[in-house]
Amino acid sequence: MNQEFNEYFNRQIKLWGQETQDSLQNKKVAIIGSGGLGCTLGIALGASGIGEFSFVDFDTVGVHNIHRQIGFKVGDDGKYKAEVLKDLMESRCPYVKVNAYKESFDEFAKRGLTFDLIIDATDNLPTRAAINEYCMKYNQPWIYGSVEEFHGQVCFFEKASYEAVFQINDRKPNGIACPIVMHIGSLQANLALRYLAGLEVKKDVLYYLSFDSEGILNTKKFNLPKA
């Protein structure tokens, strides 16, 4: 790798060495959803040196999205989220390749592409159920994340089934605060980066984070049953 590469990732090379940093360039990640979680994930993981991303989202930016979807700005409304995020990531890090798929997950799954990791950044349960079904069928590790109001959940799924834990319906989420979206997205990114860098990651543990009425942050952990 060249001198510019080493300078860009200087702090991470100090963290885990040149070989591990170089290895991240060979990793491929699919992020399903390019909204609030997807923006945080893309910015964090793109700047960490993951080599290739595929963003899957058929939706366009709306003004009501921008407050919590930190990859977008006023003036982006009407543009495809996946394309805007692709341009942002490639402008921030010249060492990343980003593919934007303006389609549903069901359509994307038919492409038969392979990834080191799939990350859920959606906002609806039926799509998560489809991701879960696909990943279980192909023994594909994936990371789940969801947010609502001031709380959120994260889990690295390997052997457990999402549908065994959550009831699937088409319920729409309530209001959402911007910082909790970034917080949950950052936790997903941390799990992903540790896994892709070959560090230890505890699988099939659901983390639930919430603020109580006094603003105290509580974190609970639940071991999920293996499928």
From TrEMBL:
One of its GO terms (molecular function) is thiosulfate-cyanide sulfurtransferase activity. Residues 9-214 form the THIF-type NAD/FAD binding fold domain. GO terms for cellular component: cytoplasm. This is Thiamine biosynthesis protein ThiF.
